[in-house]
Specification:
Arc Repressor Mutant, subunit A; four-stranded mixed sheet; 15 helices; DNA Methylphosphotriester Repair Domain; alpha/beta
């Protein structure tokens, strides 16, 4: 049975035929979200029914019941409507709202609109503040900018992008883009953004950031230094930072879940550390510390051939912005006592205890893929 979200609720609908589905594509019918996906043979891209991209010719379109089927057929997900992203990123009670906002990117949502969907504006605001560090309306603004940046990167002209994204003027678009990304439209054109998504873990949500070249940040969402970290990587990479997802973040999520599930002891992810030679050397040594074991700052300094550099090693350890993947939680004081950890000592203790316990149980010992 096909299902879709209609007026915020799951509802059974009749299985639509190809002509009905194509008509939904023409009308950008967001009520059929989840019922089908359509792919365009001439571009090799697949989309959700409400995608705002140019309507394809009927003879170039084929339909799929799931994103996985479209991927298996060799199609790439659309960068505008992101058909693979929303399925598991939001709780059930919030997903209908997010689906509607994705298909009405230029709509201005009010508290009254949320109440009509049976949602509490306070609950929505708190959820976005907890998981994204911003209000729901701030999230909508960044998604609008994210869509605009994607279109600019694809070569669209600035005027068309501004109007399609719901901005009333070019100056308003320019000011908003500068405020949220630190760049002007001309700066953003041709540059892929660094995208940020959350990863749920038993120790609380983490924020992951990365571009196609690799993962550049993975931190627990409640870390106080996160705003400064984001400012640093935006300046370092010279790219806007926007909510979204890509293959790097999806793979990071998969491997982090395997780590917490006990089936992974090492990570195999492309990383963008872009640090000083000394920091790179320290972080390389951190990745060599075996699962379930620890090293002291002094031992790391000795290994690096700099026996008097324990404090410098400690500073580089604290500057690590890729928690768990670069296991700075495995560094302790010379007497074996736990010391500073940006995610909190309770998390450091939990991670080490979990790794040591897993090591002592051969039947459940994690293994590499």
């Amino acid at each position: 049975m096909w299902r879709s979200y209609i007026t915020g609720m799951n509802a059974n609908v009749e299985n639509p035929n190809a002509d009905q589905m194509y008509q939904a594509v023409v009308q950008r019918d967001a009520s059929l979200e989840g019922v089908f996906f359509f792919a365009v043979r001439t571009t090799g891209i697949f989309c959700r029914p409400g995608c705002r991209a140019k309507t394809p010719r009927r003879e170039n379109v084929e339909f799929f019941t799931s994103a996985d089927h479209a991927l298996s057929a060799g199609y790439r997900p659309c960068r505008r409507c992101r058909p693979t992203e929303l399925a598991g990123s939001f709780p059930d009670w919030l997903r209908p709202l997010v689906l509607q906002t994705e298909n009405q990117i230029d709509r201005r949502w009010t508290d009254a609109d949320l109440k009509l969907l049976g949602l509490s504006p306070i609950r929505v605001r708190r959820w976005f503040q907890q998981h994204y560090g911003m209000t729901f309306h701030a999230y909508l603004r960044t998604r609008k900018i994210s869509t605009a940046v994607d279109q600019l990167q694809e070569g669209s002209d600035v005027t068309s992008v501004a109007l399609e994204s719901g901005f009333q003027s070019l100056s308003g678009f320019r000011d908003c883009l500068r405020k949220w990304t630190g760049q002007t439209p001309s700066d953003a054109k041709g540059k892929s953004p660094i995208v940020v998504d959350r990863i749920l873990t038993p120790l609380g949500p983490m924020l992951a950031a990365g571009c196609d070249a690799g993962l550049c940040l993975l931190e627990f969402a409640d870390r106080k230094q996160l705003p400064r970290q984001f400012q640093r990587i935006r300046k370092q990479f010279g790219r806007p930072i926007l909510p979204g997802s890509n293959e790097v973040l999806k793979e990071a999520d998969r491997q982090i879940q395997q780590y917490f599930g006990g089936s992974r002891i090492e990570f195999d992810l492309p990383l963008r550390t872009d640090a000083s030679p000394f920091q790179e050397a320290v972080w390389n040594e951190l990745q060599k510390i075996p699962y379930g074991q620890t090293r002291s700052y002094g031992e790391l300094a000795q290994t690096l051939g700099k026996p008097t550099a324990s404090r410098a090693v400690g500073r580089s350890n604290g500057d690590n912005r890729l928690a768990i993947v670069i296991p700075c939680h495995r560094v302790v004081r010379g007497d074996g006592q736990l010391c500073g950890y940006a995610g909190g000592l309770w998390r450091k203790r939990w991670l080490l205890n979990r790794e040591r316990k897993s090591q002592s149980l051969p039947a459940s010992k994690p293994k590499r893929d």
